[in-house]
């Protein structure tokens, strides 16, 4: 079936590229790309309330431990796998790290849904601390700025970030086939940006298949106006929603500072220019706060973005940074190395928040996005894609929902079936390389969801809540308890626990060494130097 389909579409760019990578000499490169997961999760008490204790010392330094750190809050743990070639190895690493965490946090739980647990008053949500070094203080002040701009509750929303790269020799092969006379670095960056454009065109599909936040606690809203329905006295929801986390009802899309920024994904220079302008352009509402109060830092600056990572984005082009290097500088000097997908909700039915079927489908989907034709992205199409995404996160499971494609209405299910047919070619190619059928099997699981929306995570969550009579908080707490018990029932081998314990101790020592080396308090100069950078 795979070869016949290719033969039928030999003039298509996507088919030509697939055929190129199907050749036995090139196929092994498909297994040499890298992938990794960053999974956020709130530490909570057994009653489902936010844990107020500092980041546990048993997990090491949040500043220096590159596998166990914090995101916004002391209570918002971030578990980061190393970059791995194989999906199975990556998920095993994620499982091992979860088990180590559960062995290290006493009787606390990890909240295994994206929307937060019962939160205390805003002023009692603890902002993450990273020590007294300049870079540690910068990370803390940045988070204080986020609290001013968006509120602390917003920063307690959790998700999963999926990092993905292709082996660099694949770009060389594609460049030879395309006969494009530019530097290999530019071609690779251009191809990753093409992937991102295709992602924006079709990312609504991921929300339909994997969105898992159709409900939230009324506690999260804190009396603000909203357009959500009432599920029970404690829970708000939308009946056809997939991901309220990614909606403008909850997320960053409608915040004033973010709304003036539109990243340019047509070329790397345009993307860098957009972000450089945003981190240097003053924004009057933030100027009202100032940067200091009574000598105490409130935010890094009063610009549209304090730093480039503040920009809300469902996907980012990335490059591994060197010590002290800003992401913009890394991209400008060495080009795009990988992409970071940031829109995934935590799957409450999975102990590590994501399944192997999800990761294998994502790998096939992103390969499709990288290999398919990707015209430049202009205002009208960007607006169309944004509207489609907004519809899907709030209404995807509504019968007969129509989206817009090239200005014309199309039924969501029809378009989804078309996309899965294309993605299946990438899945088949990955299966040929791996020597099995696990990628196509993962795709079949997603096809079943298209045929029956009740199989989607969002529908399963609401059905579970209806059947049990649980509120969102009760449902999430029960899922989190079950996963915690299952994890703690599989303790790590002694040598593995010792390995991660030693990493934790070493990271604390590294933080102490950095702090001892910075005897003079020159934080103000450090901030000025950090902010002064703009790409060449």
UniProtKB/TrEMBL annotation:
Pfam families linked: Glu_cys_ligase
EC code(s) of this entry: 6.3.2.2
Keyword rRNA-binding: no
GO BP terms in the entry: glutathione biosynthetic process
Keyword set, alphabetical order: ATP-binding, Glutathione biosynthesis, Ligase, Nucleotide-binding
Catalytic activity field: L-cysteine + L-glutamate + ATP = gamma-L-glutamyl-L-cysteine + ADP + phosphate + H(+)
UniProt-recorded Gene Ontology molecular function terms: ATP binding; glutamate-cysteine ligase activity; metal ion binding
EC main group: ligase
CC terms in the record's Gene Ontology section: cytosol
Glutamate--cysteine ligase domain boundaries: 19-391
Top-level taxon in the UniProt lineage: Bacteria
Signal peptide extent: none
Pathway the protein contributes to: Sulfur metabolism; glutathione biosynthesis; glutathione from L-cysteine and L-glutamate: step 1/2
Family that this chain belongs to: Belongs to the glutamate--cysteine ligase type 1 family. Type 1 subfamily.
PANTHER family (UniProt xref): GLUTAMATE--CYSTEINE LIGASE
Name used for this protein in its record: Glutamate--cysteine ligase
Organism field: Candidatus Vallotiella hemipterorum
Lineage: Bacteria, Pseudomonadati, Pseudomonadota, Betaproteobacteria, Burkholderiales
